[in-house]
Every structure is written in structure tokens, then in C-alpha cells.
Amino acid sequence: MTDAVVATKPTKPAGPFSAWEFELALRYLRARRKEGGIALIAIISYVAISLAVMALITVMSIMAGFRSELLSRMLSFNGHMYVQGQLLNDPSRDGAVERISGVPGVVSVAPLTENQSLVRAAGQTTGAVVRGIRPADLDSMDFVYDSLTPEAIRGFGQGAYGGDNILIGKSLADSMGLSVGDPISLYSPSGADSAFGNLGGLEKSYRVGGLFTSGTADFDRAFIFMPLEQAQLFFGKEGVWDVIELKVDQPDRVADLIQPVREAAGPGAIVSDWRDRLAAFWGALKVERVAMSIILGLVVAIAALNIISGIVMLVKNKTRDIAILRTVGASQASMLRIFFIAGAAIGLAGTVTGLVLGLVFCLNIGAIQHFLEALFGVQLFDADVYMLDAIPALVDPTDVFWVTMWSVFMSCVASLLPSWRAAKMDPVEALRYE
């Protein structure tokens, strides 16, 4: 009785994307040329998508690496947040500085003065920005502090009113032919205050106490560091702060600290952050990133469109097979899925290969660069210019995810169009000419 029931039980039809559809689609891709296969076109499409995905991941990672490196150096030099307003002239400003230092996430707080000055040395004259800073706050600028010698750090701020040792950028020193220990004259347009009133323009000779490199050549050419007390005296700002500069542990989340810092600073404080000071630079980086993503995304799309020509040829060569399958009961949906799977398989394989190659290249870009330099005997990346010994690459998981999704999406779109044509084919018309 059981055997009879089993024998008469109707066979359940295969569902969408069943095993036979995958098997037939992959068999078509592996077919030999004399059987009407598209192995060569499939390989070309696969290679094109792989290279396009690899290029997109590599370029975006290198751009992200340069952007992160450049931004970190600029923020190390300039700070992340700024406090201005009437607080700077308030007698209780030292207490406000202590309160700001206690805000969670704030790493350092440094009062500064900044003044334009003419610089004369070795028969040359140029302009510079003289930044007055407390000697203890030098270590808040990582790149600058690490580039200074122990003697330069110890000598900075020693002497009456901070002493006469100043720090200048290496680029400025090279352009003027200066070295440590040489004299350099600064001119203050405002002059210093005295018992007889303001003295007007004032020129004074200082000693080059050390050379710094900030990692950004423009800063090295334009800035000079002077002890805060000496800068206040020389520029007629005794007891005056121009700004309070803050460094935070997470510059990308600086917006979350604006309100806590404003509350700690007290009434009358004006709080801004690096996004305001570097708005033009930050905007240019974002525009460049978007533009490059669109351009390289189009390259991936063009590579994926190769799938269309391959599947069109496959459909044309398999017209007889399509007619026979439709005659024996295969549905239009099954025909669509078979050729869609064939095209999508090419795109997916190319995407995965490009993803792996791109990640391997980015994660080992330094070793690859040094190998090519040793092999060809050329310097691909000048460390003296960029202050880096290798091309920076920062792999962003979000970028990798969207590149992968875009490539798979375009491969599916390219596969869908010719597959739809195969599904709409009339089996009678197809067999008439066979």
C-alpha cells in the first residue's frame, strides 16, 4: 500500500533558482567554441570587471590615505577647536582653561597669539606668522615636537620673558640659508608698549634655536614659534591671548564637544572647530572624492556592460536549446534565470577577484613600491617632498562595501537585459529556422 502511494505521488516542480538552472547556466559558460560557447568573451568580461574593481578600490584607498595623512598633519599643527571672545580678556580665564581641560575628550588646551611679521636674515626679507606658544604646549603638535632636537626643546622658553630662542620651519631656514644658532631679525608693525607709550614699529634680533618640520611644507615656510611671554611683549600684547586652541581625541566627532566646551568656557565664549577654519580645504577634498568615485564607478559600469555582448551571443547560439527546453515544459522565467545566472556569475567572479587583488595591493603597497624601486632603480615616491617613506593607503570598509555592491548591481543589470530577450523567445519561431 505504501509503495502504491509513493508511486502515485505527484512530483513537486523545481522552484526558482533551482540546481538544474545553475548547472545549465554554468555548463553554457564552460562550453567549447565549436558548441557555441562564450568562454573567451566570458574571460574578457571577467578580467575587465576584476581590473576595474581593483582600480576603484586602490584609487579610493590611496586617496583616503593621502587625505587622512594630510588632514592629520594639518590638524596636528592648527588644532581641532578654538575658543575666542571676551573670555580671553577675563581675569578668570585661567579657571576657564582648567574647566575646558576637564571636558571629556579634550586632550590639550593652549593659549596662543598669532602676529604677522617681516623676517630678515642673510640679506633676505620675507613675511611670516609668529605664533606665541607656551613651551609646555609644544608637545601638543606631534609632528613639530618629534622633529625638534632635545636641545631645541630645552632651550625654548629659557631666559627673561621666554628668552630669545625661536623655532623656524626647515623650509623657511633652507630658503634663507639659516641654521641653528644663526641670528634672525623680526619686525613688529605694532611695536611694544613702554613707559613712553607704544613704540610703534620695532625690530629685534633673535636666535634660531631649532628647526621644525610639520609635514606640510607651506606651514614650514610660513610659521615661526616664539615663547608666549616674549611674543606678547614684542608685539605689544602683554597679557593678551588671541585664541585658546584645543586638541581632542577624536577630531572627526568634534561637533559633539562644541556644547560641552562652550558651557565650560562660560558666557561670552565663541567656540569654533577645524571644519570652519579649513572649510575650503575640506570642501575641496569632499568634491574630489565624490568626483573620483563617480568617474571610477563609470569604469566599473562600462566593464560590466561587456557581459551584455557575451550573453547576447550566448542566447543567439543557444536558440535551439531554448526552443527545446520551452517545448518540454521549461517556463519563460526559467529561461530568464538561466541566462541571468550565467551573466551574474561572470560579474560576481570578477568582483570577488578584483576585491581580493585590490585589498592585497593596498595592504602591501609599501612593500610593492619598494620592490619596484629596487627593481627599476628609480624613486617612485620622494620621501623628502612628501615626508612619507611610502604611498599611504587607507582601506575604508564602507568604500569597499559600496564598490562591491555597485559592481554586483551593474553585473546583474547587464545580465538582465539579454536574459529578458531569451525568455521572450517563441519556441516555434526558434525551431523554424533550425
List strands and helices in order, with pairings.
Elements: H1 2-8, H2 19-30, H3 39-78, E1 81-85, H4 93-101, E2 106-121, E3 124-133, H5 142-147, H6 150-155, E4 165-169, H7 170-176, E5 183-188, E6 193-194, E7 197-198, E8 202-212, H8 217-222, E9 223-227, H9 228-234, E10 243-248, H10 258-265, E11 269-273, H11 274-277, H12 279-317, H13 319-327, H14 332-363, H15 365-376, H16 383-386, H17 397-423, H18 427-432
Parallel strand pairs: 3-9, 4-8
Antiparallel strand pairs: 1-10, 1-11, 2-3, 2-5, 2-10, 4-9, 5-8, 6-7
Helix pairs in contact: 2-14, 3-12, 3-14, 3-17, 4-10, 12-14, 12-17, 14-17
Contiguous uncertain segments of 5+ residues:
1-8
Domain module count: 2
Report the structural category: alpha+beta
The global form is elongated
What integer is the average pLDDT? Answer: 82
Care to count the β-strands?
11
Radius of gyration: 34 Å
Order of helices and strands: HHHEHEEHHEHEEEEHEHEHEHHHHHHHH
Helix content: 55-70%
Q: Largest sheet, if any?
A: 6 strands, mixed, barrel
Strand order, sheet with most strands = 2-3-9-4-8-5
Strand-residue fraction?
15-25%
Straight-line N-to-C gap: 48 Å
Number of helices: 18
